[in-house]
Specification:
Helix content: 55-70%
Distance between the termini: 17 Å
Shape: globular
Structural class: mainly alpha
Strand content: under 5%
Radius of gyration: 17 Å
Length: 209
């Protein structure tokens, strides 16, 4: 079975390696050019229908500016608001697309602010909660559980009550017969000891029955 590295992982790697490359050079203000979005299939996601091209903007260096972080975070929030409006209209194609854009701009923001790899991953992976919600509505519960599990692990250095609540709710929807919540919690504990790999998480979810 061919697995696809999930969107947030690509965003994180792009942000992290770009940050490493820029560490020795002058940070330049990017000029963002809007490009048409293309829908792509999410291979490896069981019967998943909705998706969007993650990196939808070109970034070109121009002059340095202190407002660069504000530019990225404002665009992330703008994409989030568009996604939420699309959710209300049950336009899940557009919602998935805009949530992907939100994750993209979060990565650029984390890059420019010099976030640690773990904090950058946690910020970008926060959007996985929204991806999971779309899949939950589609009743693709195991795929939705993957996104929630990945989000929880990526944010394990800053746990909140909501993580446990969501993990339990999405776990119950999967109706596993041979996998317990304790199995899942043990997996979270093991994976939280280092930088989480989404392929590892996805493979484990696939094995649970």
């Amino acid at each position: 079975m061919v697995f696809v590295v999930m969107f947030s992982f690509f965003v994180f790697l792009g942000a992290f390696f770009k940050y490493k490359a820029n560490a020795k050079t002058k940070i330049r203000r990017p000029q963002i050019e809007e490009k048409p979005h293309k829908f792509v299939s999410r291979k490896g996601m069981t019967k998943a229908k909705y998706s969007g091209k993650l990196f939808s903007s070109n970034v070109k260096g121009t002059s340095q500016s202190s407002s660069i972080e504000d530019n990225f975070i404002l665009k992330a929030l703008e994409a989030r608001d568009k996604a939420r409006l699309a959710m209300k209209s049950k336009d899940y194609n557009t919602a998935w697309l805009e949530f992907s854009r939100q994750a993209e701009f979060y990565a650029y923001f984390a890059n420019q602010r010099g976030f640690s790899p773990q904090n950058a991953l946690s910020l970008v992976a926060s959007v996985d909660e929204d991806f999971a919600n779309i899949l939950r509505i589609e009743k693709k519960h195991k795929d939705a559980f993957f996104h929630i599990l990945y989000w929880v692990i990526a944010s394990s250095h800053r746990p909140i009550k909501k993580h446990e609540q969501k993990l339990l709710a999405y776990f119950n929807r999967c109706k596993f017969e041979e996998t317990t919540l304790e199995d899942v919690r043990y997996f979270v504990e093991i994976q939280s000891s280092g930088m989480v790999n989404p392929l590892t998480v996805k493979e484990q979810v696939r094995k649970w029955v």
